[in-house]
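Troubleshooting log. The previous structure file for this entry was overwritten by mistake, so regenerating from the original sequence record. Sequence copied from the archived sheet and checked twice against the printout by T.R.
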Amino acid sequence: MPTTNLPASQRSLIASVAANTRWSRVNSPEARRAATAAASAARRSKWEKQADPDGVLPPEELEAAVSRLKSAHFSRMALRSAQARAGRKAS
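Regenerated output below.
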């Protein structure tokens, strides 16, 4: 089903149905971790390259920098979520 001409609210519902259907087949925590392992590794690799593009930081410093980037990522997501909720409330 092409979704390009649908309103954002309907596209969101379609995506929610698809995600819930996909994850309904994954029942154990180990299976969930395995299903998301590649994406988690790629995200961590991206943060490592962002924190230390020349590869010169010691492992402890790299870990701290990656931790800060991860925190910034989730804070940014929380901010966007709050802004979206405020926008919906205002309309």
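The mean pLDDT is 94. Archived copy saved in two places this time.
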